[in-house]
Automatic annotation (TrEMBL):
Organism: Erpornis zantholeuca
SMART domains: TPR
Keywords, ordered alphabetically: TPR repeat
PROSITE patterns the record matches: TPR
InterPro entries named among the record's database cross-references: FANCG, TPR-like_helical_dom_sf, TPR_rpt
GO cellular component terms attached to this protein's record: Fanconi anaemia nuclear complex
UniProt keyword annotation of Transmembrane helix present: no
Name recorded for this polypeptide: FANCG protein
Gene: Fancg
Top-level division of the source organism's lineage: Eukaryota
TPR repeat placement: 490-523
GO BP of this protein: interstrand cross-link repair
Length: 603
C-alpha cells in the first residue's frame, strides 16, 4: 500500500506538467507500476475501468498533437496504436496494453481483449500459429505477442513477460469455465488443462483441478474426476470444495465408506480456520485470482456451511441403514438449529438442506429405527405444533386454477395462489407424516389404542385435501405433494388396520385394508393383511381366493409402493418396512389345508 501511494503521488506530480514526448516513457512506466501496485494492494477481484489508462492515452495523443476525448476505450486504443509511431513509446504502450487486457478480462470482455492484442501484434506475428491445433484464437494471439524489452533505467514492479503468462492462464481458465457451463466438456477439459500448466498460485491451481474434476464427472468419468480432485487436495489441502465434490463422486459410485469419510473430513475442516495457502511462485501484484471471477466458478467453489455437511452425513447414514450414526448426526444437526442455523445457510437454493420440517421427520424416522420411540414422538410433536396454524380447514386443488397459470389474464394471481396452495400441501403432508410416525412409535411401545388415535388423526388430516375438476389428478405443479399425501394415507390405513387386528377389532381392520386397496390396487401389504382379516372373521373362502390371487401376481403387477411414481421422501422410506406383511407360515399352512380340503370335497 505504501508503494501504491508513492507511485500515485509521483504520477500526480508528473501529470502536473504539460504532456511532452521525452517524458512520456517515464510517465507511462510510472502509470504501469501504479496500476499494478493498486491491484496488488487489493485482495478482491479487479472491477470497473482503469481510469488512469484512459488519461495516459489521452496525454500521449496530446503530446503528438491529436485528441480523443470523445472516443471509447477500444477506439482510443486503436487510434493510439495506429497513429503514434514514436519508437520510444512502443514498449511502454504495449506494457500498458497488457494491463488494459487484464482489466477487460476481469470484466469478461474477451472480445475487447482479442481486438487489443490484434492491434498489439504485427501482421506477421498475428498470422503465426503459436498454439497446438484446436486451441482458442485469443490464446494464440496472446502467445504470438512479443513482450517488449525492459529498459534498464526504468524498473518494473512486475515484468510484462510474467503478466503475459498470467493473462494466458487466466484466459484459459475463464474460457474453460465458459465451455463447462455451456456443456462443451471436451473443449472445457482441454482449456482447463492448459490453465493447469500455466502461471498461478497453489490456491488457483487447486481450483483449476477442482474444475477439471467437475468436468470429468459430468463427462461420466468418475475415476478421472477423483484423480483431479485428489490432485487439487495434494496441491492445497485447504481447497475444501474439492473434498465436497469428491464426496459427491463417491456417492455416485456407491462407495459409501469413502463418501462418509470425505464428508467427515470436510466437516472437521470447516470447523477450523485454515491458514492461507502458500504460493507456488514468488508474490505477484497482478494474479490470476484477481482476473477470474464468474458465477459458474463461484458455484463450483461454494463452501458448504458445517450444518449442511452434518445434514449430509445424517442423510447418507440413514439411507445406508447406519441408524445409530444417523441418529447421532441428526441430533447434532437439530442442536445447530438452536444456534440460528437459518441465518447462516444460503437461501438461494444452493444449499443441500431440505425444508426444516422434513429434517425433523427424517430424525424421527432414524430415532424410530433405533428403538428410541418416545424421542421420535417428541420430535414429531414439534413438527405438528409448528405446522398446525399454517393448514386451512379444507384444502381444495382446482383444475381451473392450474389452467389459469398458463393463461395471460390473471396468470400472476394464479401463480401466487398455486404457490400458496403448494406450501399448504407441504405443511399438511408434514403434519400428517408426524402423526403417522407417532402412530408407529406408539405401536412399537405396545400402546395400540394410542397408535389408533394417531393414525386416525393422520387420516383426518389427509382427508382435508379435496380434488376438484373433471380429472381427479392435479397437473404437474402440485402432483408431487398430492402423491406424498396419498402415500401417507395408504401407510396410515394399513397401520391403523394392523392395530385393529391387535385389538381384535377385525371388521374395522378389514375396512381399512379394503380402503388401502382402493387407493393402491394390488398393494401386496394391504392384500396380505386383507387375507388375514378375512380369515380371522371366518370368511375363509374369500380369504383363500384373495390369497390365491396374491400368490399368482408377479412382482411387477402387485403395485409395490417403492416401485411406482416418484421416489418416496426419505422420511417416509422406513414406513415401507413398517407396513410390510410379516410372513406367516401358520396362516399360509391353514389356507393351504383349507384349499386341499375344499378340493377333496369337490371331487
Amino acid at each position: 500500500r505504501q508503494q501504491r501511494d508513492e507511485f500515485g503521488e509521483l504520477l500526480l506530480s508528473i501529470r502536473g506538467l504539460p504532456a511532452a514526448l521525452p517524458a512520456l516513457p517515464l510517465e507511462l512506466t510510472v502509470l504501469y507500476n501504479s496500476l499494478l501496485s493498486t491491484a496488488g494492494a487489493s485482495d478482491s477481484a479487479i472491477k470497473g475501468e482503469a481510469e488512469g489508462i484512459r488519461l495516459g492515452l489521452l496525454r500521449v495523443l496530446e503530446a503528438c498533437g491529436a485528441c480523443g476525448q470523445d472516443l471509447g476505450m477500444e477506439e482510443l486504443w486503436q487510434k493510439v496504436l495506429q497513429e503514434v509511431t514514436v519508437e520510444e513509446l512502443q514498449a511502454p504502450l504495449h506494457r500498458l496494453g497488457t494491463l488494459q487486457a487484464a482489466w477487460w478480462l476481469a470484466a469478461g470482455c474477451l472480445g475487447s481483449v482479442a481486438g487489443l492484442f490484434q492491434l498489439l501484434s504485427t501482421a506477421e506475428e498475428s498470422g503465426r500459429s503459436h498454439c497446438s491445433e484446436g486451441q482458442d484464437k485469443l490464446l494464440s494471439l496472446i502467445k504470438a505477442w512479443r513482450v517488449p524489452p525492459e529498459g534498464a533505467s526504468l524498473p518494473l514492479v512486475q515484468s510484462a513477460k510474467d503478466l503475459k503468462e498470467i493473462l494466458c492462464t487466466a484466459i484459459a481458465f475463464l474460457q474453460g469455465l465458459q465451455e463447462l457451463e455451456a456443456g462443451n466438456f471436451p473443449t472445457a477439459l482441454s482449456l482447463l488443462q492448459e490453465a493447469a500448466g500455466g502461471f498461478c498460485s497453489k490456491k488457483i491451481l487447486a481450483q483449476i483441478y477442482t474444475c477439471l474434476g467437475c468436468c470429468a464427472q459430468r463427462m461420466g468419468k468418475p475415476q478421472t474426476a477423483l484423480q483431479h480432485l485428489k490432485r487439487a487436495l495434494q496441491v492445497d489441502f485447504h481447497c475444501l470444495p474439492a473434498l465436497s465434490h469428491a464426496a459427491a463422486v463417491y456417492h455416485e459410485l456407491g462407495e459409501t465408506n469413502a463418501e462418509l469419510q470425505a464428508l467427515t473430513l470436510l466437516y472437521e475442516a470447516l470447523g477450523k480456520n485454515p491458514p492461507a495457502a502458500a504460493s507456488s511462485s514468488p508474490y505477484f501484484l497482478m494474479r490470476t485470482e484477481l482476473l477470474v471471477h464468474t458465477p459458474v466458478l463461484t458455484s463450483l467453489l461454494r463452501h458448504h456451511h458445517p450444518s449442511e455437511v452434518k445434514y449430509l452425513l445424517a442423510q447418507r447414514c440413514l439411507q445406508d441403514g447406519r441408524v445409530a450414526d444417523a441418529v447421532e448426526h441428526y441430533l447434532d444437526f437439530l442442536s445447530l438449529l438452536q444456534e440460528g442455523l437459518q441465518q447462516q445457510v444460503p437461501l438461494d437454493g444452493s444449499s443441500a438442506l431440505p425444508r426444516i420440517p422434513e429434517v425433523f421427520l427424517e430424525a424421527a424416522s432414524a430415532l424410530e429405527q433405533a428403538g428410541r420411540h418416545q424421542d421420535a414422538i417428541t420430535v414429531c410433536e414439534e413438527v405438528i405444533s409448528r405446522t398446525t396454524d399454517l393448514i386451512p380447514q379444507v384444502l381444495q386443488v382446482e383444475e381451473k386454477l392450474e389452467q389459469l397459470e398458463c393463461s395471460s389474464p390473471g396468470a400472476e394471481l394464479a401463480s401466487g395462489l398455486l404457490s400458496q396452495k403448494k406450501e399448504s400441501l407441504c405443511c399438511l403432508a408434514w403434519r400428517a407424516a408426524g402423526y403417522l410416525h407417532q402412530g408407529w412409535a406408539w405401536a412399537k411401545l405396545g400402546k395400540n389404542k394410542e397408535a389408533v388415535t394417531q393414525f386416525s388423526r393422520c387420516l383426518s388430516d389427509v382427508l382435508r385435501l379435496q380434488l376438484h375438476g373433471s380429472g381427479v389428478k392435479p397437473t404437474e405443479t402440485l402432483q408431487a405433494e398430492v402423491e406424498v399425501l396419498q402415500k401417507i394415507r395408504l401407510f396410515s390405513l394399513i397401520g391403523r388396520g394392523v392395530q385393529f387386528l391387535e385389538l381384535e377389532r377385525h371388521k374395522e381392520a378389514l375396512l381399512d385394508f379394503q380402503h388401502s386397496l382402493q387407493i393402491s390396487p394390488g398393494d401386496p401389504a394391504a392384500a396380505s393383511y386383507l387375507v388375514q382379516a378375512l380369515w380371522k372373521l371366518n370368511r375363509k373362502q374369500e380369504a383363500a381366493a384373495q390369497w390365491q390371487k396374491l400368490s399368482q401376481s408377479s412382482p411387477g403387477e402387485d403395485g409395490q409402493q417403492g416401485g411406482q411414481g416418484r421416489p418416496l421422501p426419505l422420511y417416509l422410506v422406513s414406513c415401507l418396512e413398517q407396513v410390510m406383511f410379516p410372513h406367516s407360515e401358520s396362516l399360509a399352512r391353514s389356507i393351504q389345508d383349507y384349499l386341499r380340503a375344499a378340493a377333496q370335497d369337490t371331487s
